[in-house]
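I need you to check the entry underneath: sequence plus fold tokens. Let me know what the token row says about the fold.

>
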Amino acid sequence: MTALSPLLDLAADKKSADVTDWAARAAWVVGLLLFIALVYWLMREGWKWRGTLQSDLPELPAVPDDPGPAKLELSGRYHGSTTAGQWLDRIVAHGLGTRSRVELTLTDAGLAVVRPGATDFFVPAAQLREARLDKGIAGKVLTEGGLLIVTWEHGDKLIDSGFRSDHAAEQTEWAEAINNMINTNSHTTEGTAR
């Protein structure tokens, strides 16, 4: 034991250096929080600027009190709207950029889009242009056929709106029903125009 006592005395005499510099650590944390706040603020300003650029988009049609009997109903998620054919050009005006739960109802009058916590809207049957299954829309990419994309006309702009059903198998039925309705309406319009 006498051979170890000088080593113990040596170890006991020296004080180890502080491992953590709390002032530097606090400065780094505050700096990181300020950076995150700046990035969030810039993203918010960008979102508002995009809405200002799209302010020429007319108000969305409201869901009518009695749109008629439902042909199909779907519950799921609304993932947003883009300029038709440009899946990354998100439309944020009038709340179209807000993701939300959705209840879709297809009637002879058109497509009712009811979104709890967001703006509801209605797409009249005459403004529906196409329905298809696709893999993505701005901010959401899934497997092929994972999204129901409905193309519709609003003002002078074609819009793609993306929906995902809670039961993905029913999306094919929706695409077929909407396209059949569009074809029926276009044949009826052509017949009355003659």
In short: The first strand starts at residue 72 and ends at 83. Residues 78 and 163 are 5 Å apart (CA to CA). The helical segments are 5-13, 22-53, 170-193. The first helix runs from residue 5 to 13.
